[in-house]
Amino acid sequence: MFVSTDVDVIVIGGGPVGTTALALLGRAGHTAIGLEKDREMWPTARAVHFDGETMRTLQGLAVADRFIGVTIPMKHVDIVNEADEVLVHAPTDRLGDQAWNDHISFHQPDIEGLVREIVETSPGVELRCGVTATRVESTDTGVEVTTLDEDGTERTLRARWAIAADGARSEVRRALGIETDKYGEDAQWLVVDGQLVDAPGYETDMIQFARYSRPALWLRLPGSRVRMEFMLVPGDDPDEIVTPAAVERISRGILPADKFTPDRQAMYTFRGRIARQWRKGNVFLAGDAAHQAPPLFGQGLCAGIRDVENLAWKMDLVARGIADDSLLDTYESERKPHATFWVETAANQAVGIQTLDPRVAEGRDAFMRAHPEASAVPTSPPLGPGFHEGDERAGRLSIQPILADGTRLDDMVGHHFLVVADRSIYSELPAGIKAALVEDGDTVTLLDPLKIDQILDATKAKAVVVRPDHYILGAGDTAADLERLVRQIPSIAHAATLTVDTH
């Protein structure tokens, strides 16, 4: 039995991952308090890239159209060598299988501000800024979080769970004694963001410059904004390298001092890290607190949004007594291998891009010419073991069809389990299972071929059950398969209907 709590969840960190967690919890009808130590929102950009899966999460918050207004699709990606030879060219201006563009650029304050607006209008959740979490303790009945306001007032908040989304230098992670594993080699880089006016920049939206003289990155952002990142090399003067003249020099004239106005210049470290433990008691790590990757595939923030999407629906089921607390153990087992894939992939790509040895670069260039597919953005992997059947079809992200009238399927399904099946398979289900599907408020069943055939074809199955986070619980080809899958849906397994004869 849990003691009285102030809220269901305390979220530590008010960046885009933490605020998305608040929004997702609020959508599910739960109470949550977010704690952000800074009074004002961070004014400059850090993350600049979403993928289609992330946009699908925002779609589920009913604000995707507003996000479209402050983002641009990324049309193409290149890898270029020292001689300005394009080693790899990848067109990316197309809708992906999530019903959104797979590569979308943005200015983080625009995105973060919109997510905060969602939180402000969501009943039961709030973000408290200027409040620092000084102690986080997991107890037998939940968590206790001690906070310190800017005026020196100390308070204690109690909740069933806490999500630590407090960044790469997570104080919560350190206080819990959780160490991280290192992937790849660390390297110091300079990032500059700003307005480029009356200068062409590069036509390509995203370029990885595999230059052995100085590796660099280029990204075109909404409006007149651009970003360039430059690896620091031996002999650089940290004070001189950030001057307008130096930025013009190391950008090879792409960012002229009289046409580029920076609003952010910062030294940071290309690093790959994975926390060894993502759950300790009733405290969960998410976002950069759990994983950090070099930015070469733009998956850092995407991975953080996946974290809280995975957590939110599981917390909802456990909080409502529909699932056992052990369901939350599948958060780390599912998400950690998935995030590790992206960290390893980005770290391996960084090794090739960052070399300063001309001979190594020559061999890399020859390999990329012969195997351009090896440097393309990889296909997202399946989840690790957890709440899915674990075969070649389960644990993977389901597609989102766009219907004939332009409706994206999620707008019809909502935040529910989705059962899609060939009518002939469905017709063979026991009457009790059919009744359970009809009565269950957590599940939507679709049999119309116009709505579901794309999902069945993509999965190569006649029946598929999709979780609320859009990952496939399982797929099958017979009525027996479908019945087995339906019985795994927590709300149906919990229902009294399944305790009686279903034949």
Automatic annotation (TrEMBL):
Pfam families: FAD_binding_3. It comes from the Bacteria. Residues 6-344 form the FAD-binding domain. GO terms for biological process: 3-(3-hydroxy)phenylpropionate catabolic process. GO terms for molecular function: 3-(3-hydroxyphenyl)propionate hydroxylase activity; FAD binding. SUPFAM superfamilies: FAD/NAD(P)-binding domain (SSF51905). Keywords: Oxidoreductase. Gene3D superfamilies: 3.30.70.2450, FAD/NAD(P)-binding domain (3.50.50.60). InterPro entries: FAD-bd, FAD/NAD-bd_sf, PheA/TfdB_FAD_monoxygenase. PANTHER family: 3-(3-HYDROXY-PHENYL)PROPIONATE/3-HYDROXYCINNAMIC ACID HYDROXYLASE, FAD-BINDING MONOOXYGENASE. This is Bifunctional 3-(3-hydroxy-phenyl)propionate/3-hydroxycinnamic acid hydroxylase.
